[in-house]
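Holo prediction. Input below; ligand is zinc ion.
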Amino acid sequence: MTPSTGNVLDGWRVEEYGRSGDGAPLRVFLPAGDSPPGGLLLAAQHGEEGATALLVRRILERVPARESSWAVVPVANPDGLLNGTRQNAAGVDLNRNFPAATWRPDDSFTFPPGIEDERRVPGNRTNLSSPGTHAGSEPETQALIALVERLRPPLVVDIHSPLELLLPRGAVPAGVTEALASAANLPVVDDVGGPCPGAFDDWLVDRGIPALVYEVEHAGLPALCARHLPGLVSLLRQRSPV
Ligand SMILES: [Zn+2]
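Structure of the complex:
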């Protein structure tokens, strides 16, 4: 593994694309030049999945901006990350708040953070979230929608934990999915075992943008980096992945 460059990122432009409900900046890291991005990589839409934000930070440290065409959002839900909650500061699960055709007004049930694999059975989906007062109600959701509309990425990779799988949605290039699956030894699935109404990837597919949900496992950062950085760094170095 190449050495980290500490706090200095090589050439990435940081832009604030909005503010969270509690006023935290929502930041996107953009590559050099003004060309349309080759893709959008996103993490920590769920605040209790903080390791995904750190994993993405490690990618930014390893790929100079001039060698990438990707836009990168390391923390889509900063209030949830700071509070240690899946939801944003208003108690909304952002990944149930997008104005996709699937959005529903009912509260959503998910597994509690950190639940052991063997307890992942439907009866243990006891973590209750609001999907928002209406589709697209949350400032983080609105800002991300505006960012996607502006950048029009040809592919979005949305990192979550802890399901340890790849879920391609829409016309994700098979080569991208296969390369990531092979690099990290991850299974490719066609559903995650339960409905996710109003999910970001549902909205992206409605808009004709392919999305790859990339779920890492429960693990510490060194183990996550060892397993997932090679494929993700390689993806970010591709200037035209689609
Ligand atoms: Zn998640």
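Strands lie at 13-19, 25-30, 39-42, 70-73, 108-110, 127-129, 156-160, 163-169, 211-217. That is the main takeaway for now.
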